[in-house]
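re: that chain from earlier
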Amino acid sequence: MNGSLTRRTLSYLGFALVAVYCLAPFYWMTISAFRRPQDQFDNTIIPVRWSWENFSAVFSGDNGFGRALVNSLIVAGSTTVLTLLIGTFTAYALARLDFRFKNAVLGLIIATTMFPGISQLVPLLKLFTDIKWINTYQAMVLPSLGFALPLSVWLLTAFFRQLPFELEQAAMVDGCTRGQAFRKIIIPLAAPGVFTTAILTFIAAWNEFLIALSMVNKKEMQTATVAISKFTGVSGFDQPFGTQMAAGVIVTVPLIVVVLVFQRRIVAGLTAGGVK
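^ sequence. v structure.
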């Protein structure tokens, strides 16, 4: 009995430590955002006086943060949609169709993730400069798509392989074509895997910094992460620590909302698949 209680206590303690470790940076960022500008370097756990000045400063002046948020949404949304469209069909073909060198193709796809992203930026920058794609959305979406697709295809292929092939056979016996069986049977059952892939892709594209910094030099085209790095203080030389923390909170909130929304859909998809 004492041993069971000890294990349970240690388990709860471990969960608490992990939670504190993960949430502490976000908590510190949040309370720093609510400090007054003159208190931005205080180390108190709770602000002495709460203030919205930093949040007002994020959208004031010539920061262009509102437009940067729209740009991030366009880039992350486009990357996610294209990744799901291409990745779903590719993963289905790799999971269900028989053709030569299928395993080699899958291995080659996942091997592309081993190349560091920084090594691909210089050739891409040269290419996009030659075709005049600098300061465009596609210059940010296509490299992000190249990084997101391999992992998405790998995850979705493993998920499709777990679905029983007999479901498609039964649908085709009832008169469905392979495409109709894929659309009406497989996609609904694969919803948990698709939504999980969408979450991972959107978060990665939303937080992306290096590609956006390299491919864009116009202020009106920069994403939120790049805009935060270029914040300046009132005089142009002081450190806008509080404003950057407030912008970090604003950028993080959509991710929390997206995760919560898609988590509910994932649970619903898993339950529906189990009932069927």
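Confidence is low (pLDDT under 50) at residues 269-276.
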